[in-house]
Amino acid sequence: MLDQLEFSGDLWVSPGPGGWTFITLPVECADQIRFLAGGRKAKSWGMIKVKASIGSSTWRTTIWPDKASGSFLLPVKAAVRKTEKVAVGDRVEVNMTVLDEPGG
């Protein structure tokens, strides 16, 4: 299905305030995401609503555009990292769906 993305990525922590943990999506996913999202944005700054899964954990979030990579950043919550026993530096498999409903 076009709206389903599967990829792997490394967990890393942002040096900025809050120390968010992210996975940078592969660049080849970016065009597909932009196509699927069309004009829909969750908020300003170009964030797009998605449903993501790592292992048995599934959550709804927004991906953030990243100028440095030309792709998007997927924030990974502490609860997901704890449940899946993964940490910064680990490579994980991600399944993700771009959500099409306005309210997410």
Can you walk through the features of this model?
The chain is an alpha+beta fold and 104 residues long. The chain is 17% helix and 42% strand. The protein has a six-stranded antiparallel beta barrel. Strand 4 and strand 5 form a beta hairpin.
Descriptive labels:
single chain, 104 residues, alpha+beta, Elongation Factor Tu (Ef-tu), domain 3, 6 strands, 17% helix, AF2212/PG0164-like_sf, DUF1905 domain-containing protein, DUF1905
CATH superfamily: AF2212/PG0164-like
Could you tell me the radius of gyration in angstroms?
13 Å
Strand content: 35-45%
The main β sheet shows up as:
6 strands, antiparallel, barrel
Q: Helical region count? A: 2
Q: Which term fits the overall shape?
A: globular
- Please, how many domains? 1
CATH topology: Elongation Factor Tu (Ef-tu), domain 3
Q: On the 0-100 scale, what is the average pLDDT?
A: 87
Please give the alpha-carbon distance between the first and last residues.
19 Å
Strand order of the largest sheet: 1-2-5-4-3-6
CATH architecture: Beta Barrel
Organism: Roseibium album
Protein name: DUF1905 domain-containing protein
Pfam families: DUF1905
